[in-house]
Amino acid sequence: MAKRDNFTPTTKKIMAERVAWRCSFPNCGKITIGPRMGENENDKSLNLGEAAHIVAAAEDGPRYDSNTTPEYRKSIDNGIWMCRAHARFIDTDYKEFSVETLRLWKLEAEEKAYRALSLQDNYQFSSKSTLIALGFEAVFEGTWEAVDKNEWTFKVKQFIEGNSSKLKDYADNYGSIDCNQKFISVVSQGDARVIQEPISIQYLDDGSELISVRIAPKVIASLPENSGMDFMLGEDGDIVLEGGDIKMVTGVDKAIQSISTAASMQYGEWFADRTAGSFIAQYYNKYKSNVALLNQLIKLEFIRLSLVPRTTSEGKLVKPPLNFIKEVKTANLKAIALKNSSTVVTLSLVLGNGDEWNGDQTVYIGT
Ligand SMILES: [Zn+2]
User: Fold this and answer.
1) How far does residue 249's CA lie from ligand 1's centre (Å)?
2) Distance, CA 99 to ligand 1 centroid (Å)?
3) Domain 224-364, CATH 3.10.450.40 — does that match?
4) Per-residue pLDDT tens digits for 67-94
């Protein structure tokens, strides 16, 4: 059996206490501790909670990250307190919940527990929101409010693109909207899903929206080594020649090369299919003064290009252009200034074969 970096009893106890022994799963909050009942048990308590690992305790576990140290993996920062059902849910049934998403859930649970103490201080809680795109026209900051097997619920905090009425139109006219807009992509998850049914919006007393989305299962990523063959492209985007011959790329190299091509094609500009392309150039031009936001928007686009299938203008369902990517961990601009009308994005990805890939890709922005 692989070596496990387990939490100490003290770490577990403090982890539980910091959320008042309640489950940290969105909208669960189940109390996990109580009295043990029975003969000679009146001096014992019963604990039904579990200290779940965010980054797995062992190499074969969910969300394992070899870049973390054993000390980190057994530290309180790497734990989230949950009821047994939800600890199992995130570790076996739905292990695709990402490290970043679980961290947001933990912060949310700790804030709830702290607020329940009703102290009179003005502690500044760190942000628990993530960026979410719903189709092409609504992008908002939101928090995870509830999670079911195939339903995600978010509270809208602030719109970046679109507004409340756009969101309402999306829900009201769901049947007639372009099928390529029926997706949700979530920065904290590095993941996007096709939406299966009309979304529902609930209006809260404070005027904010709670949106619930029925999601399709995650698209299964392909193996990058099966990506076939293509001409090798140089940094300038031109075909590379070697001794008069055109150089070719195959497999993983071909897959990686296609990242730049897919990201550089602007949405709607390709005459043969107006449904192809990315919004990265548009986002760049609109948000370059706010790099933190721009990076998140670029990440959303890479997520969409990796995980959302597309219906072409001829009505054919095709795989996402970057189908060999399973998870987009980070996407960050290397510099804001353009060089040769292009920018460079540093990506951290999990590929369809489970391998991590970290590196730079050039994205054409234009002038
Ligand atoms: Zn729970």
Assistant:
1) 48
2) 18
3) yes
4) 899 999 999 999 999 999 999 999 887 7
pLDDT recorded at residue 2: 64
| Distance from residue 255's CA to the centre of ligand 1 (Å) | 40
pLDDT at position 1: 55
Provide CATH 3.10.450.40 ranges for the chain.
224-364
- The vertex-228 CA angle with 226 and 233, nearest 5°, equals 125
How far is ligand 1, taken at its centre, from the CA of residue 83, in Å? Answer: 4
What confidence score (pLDDT) does residue 126 get? Answer: 85
CA of 186 to the centre of ligand 1 (A): 22
Pairing of strands 310-311, 151-161: unpaired
Torsion, Cα of 12, 17, 20, 26 (10° steps): -40
* Separation of CA 346 and ligand 1 centre (Å): 36
Q: How far is the CA of 26 from the centre of ligand 1 (A)?
A: 8
Q: How far does the centroid of ligand 1 lie from the alpha carbon of residue 87, in Å?
A: 7
Distance of alpha carbon 308 from the chain centroid:
13
Regions of the chain where pLDDT drops below 50 = none
Instruction: Using alpha carbons, select from 58, 116, 48 the residue that is nearest to residue 88.
Output: 48
Cα–ligand 1 centroid distance for 56 (angstroms): 19
